[in-house]
Amino acid sequence: MRERFTLPDDVLYLDGNSLGAMPAHLPAAMADAVSRQWGHDLIRSWNGNDWWGLPTRIGDRIGRLVGAAPGQIVCGDSTTVQLFQAVMAAARLRPGRSVLLTDGDGFPTDQYVVDSVGRTAGLKVARVSPPDVAAALSDDVAVVALSVVDYRTGEQWDVAGITEQVHAAGAVVVWDLSHAVGCLPIKLDEVGADLAVGCSYKYLNGGPGAPAWIYVASRHQDVADLPLTGWHGHADPFALEQEYRPAGGIERARIGTPPVLSMLALDAALDVWDDVDMQAVRTKSLRLTDTVIAYADAFLPDVSVVTPREHARRGSQVALRMEHAYEVTQALIARGVIGDFRAPDMLRLGLAAPYLSYTQVWDAMEQLRDVLATRAWDDPSFARTATVT
Amino acid sequence: MRERFTLPDDVLYLDGNSLGAMPAHLPAAMADAVSRQWGHDLIRSWNGNDWWGLPTRIGDRIGRLVGAAPGQIVCGDSTTVQLFQAVMAAARLRPGRSVLLTDGDGFPTDQYVVDSVGRTAGLKVARVSPPDVAAALSDDVAVVALSVVDYRTGEQWDVAGITEQVHAAGAVVVWDLSHAVGCLPIKLDEVGADLAVGCSYKYLNGGPGAPAWIYVASRHQDVADLPLTGWHGHADPFALEQEYRPAGGIERARIGTPPVLSMLALDAALDVWDDVDMQAVRTKSLRLTDTVIAYADAFLPDVSVVTPREHARRGSQVALRMEHAYEVTQALIARGVIGDFRAPDMLRLGLAAPYLSYTQVWDAMEQLRDVLATRAWDDPSFARTATVT
Description:
By secondary structure, the first copy, chain A, is α/β, with parallel strands linked by helices.
């Protein structure tokens, strides 16, 4: 699979959990998208190149990777937007209940959006760690919104168990798969998920800012009341009616005109996945994270492994806690070893199984060992300034 | 300016009001975006190629074209999403008032979104034609949301006059500039607009589904309460705090990670506009629409001109009413004359001044005359089926 990607020769890329590597055929695919589909075919591409069908066609392709039968995922807009859409719709599935639960250590956007839905819909928000969800549930909880994998520590939560607990309390669960899609064999249908969202620019390698997606389980589609009512989600979009009549099925989760060029990049990127078994990806991912953990245990006495050692509780990244983690991250990047820093004291390494070799991971860890042993991080050029990762 | 665009030789393109033509340098710009910025620079591009600054940098470039001083526009996500964001924020600027006014003949999404905000915020929605806004205003009206140009008829509304009326009643106005940006010399600051949105794939030629944008007048920025609270709009995004603290200035209108590839296409497309005087664009646009109208008057006895003849009341498109308008549109497209159909009986011709010549417009009208005179539209292959335009 590694030959399906282009990576610079002078880089060891352990940041695929932030922005995935570029599939090798992307330049040709984008040249076609721009010159032929836009430049030559122009407006005719909506039919002729089926731009209209992109959101659901891509949705079904992603569905195969997250255990969702066709017709339950639509792609478009950003993760924030899809989260708002999902959490609002989830809350409306449980009128009369007044509490939204979310993870107080979850990704900030997830917390901000749940707070915003709370303010908008007049609901209270409570924060809880995923293992403590059961204790926090009551018949007043409408929605539980959680990520599958903790974005900092890489801890994977018990999706099946928590979903069952939430349902037993009569509530609805919204899963954020941003750090899970493309690295874990998720089974949305099998666990009975209600709604889910995810991004496409991490392990799916869809390109910077690749459009996010939303899953609405079939059983909820006819009653899902989604707040972002663009004309693409209308039952008869080209009738251009005054009143919104939501489409049947997952089409109602369409919003407005999606970012077609970004969608075409993602659609091409998904070609990489068509013959891939997610269980095989998972197996290699675990071997790679095992390698990082074993290396840290053996050779990095001043580093502690934050990510769980138990396989079932681990995503596809490893967080290493250390002093001067920010400067260490910068020193590694200067050597072409790209990971990222998460405040206050973590180096985060993403292990994308499709394009990372064991040798590359070992070499990256050797560089880390050297940076620590030689105090190469102790250089003014690596001092903390405003940062974007 | 025409040399800045690539158009197929066998096409007369009068649909730039739906999807603008491709600037000639776009293939090179996108090749750089994909191969170098994503493929080689990877995550480092957020700083190194200033992906982080794209939403506001593009915002300021659009600002120059719509009379907005820097620091009031941010780009990202779809028009639907930005409309929801703007109308919700506008309603929150006028708590205690209970009515939203919108145009009952406006673009469907605009009506659907206002209805959705009404349901979400517990407000009533009333529909009114823009010239009748004054009569519909009261001290219970919170927001008036209108398009600058009617998407079907091409009628331009009195932005300055209506804004003044709305303000006199103590309400807030949200303008949709989708059919105005890039063809009319709009003056958002000068007329005192409150909020505005627009799309970028029509007259701005930003590419299919190019990200939309939102304008929040400086005077409202510190109190604007926007519902889509993604981490990019946080006062200190990389502190990754639990609680949302909106950024100062227009940065608070950022949402989540935007569709970077689509943004880079739009950013490149805006190069076309840097030395352009919008008044010159307007002058040529009027001459082009005058040509269409004069031709219809002189040579098309069975066609009626729906678009206003008064320059001040006209956008940059002409709608022609005729029998069999759908079939006529298809027959024209088969000849390479691309306009579009709007139910029930209109052929809509978009006149994009930057790349259309008078000769091309004349030739297109000659084709229309011939299609009507020879009944070329009366062919089973042009009969109405499901359509996407």
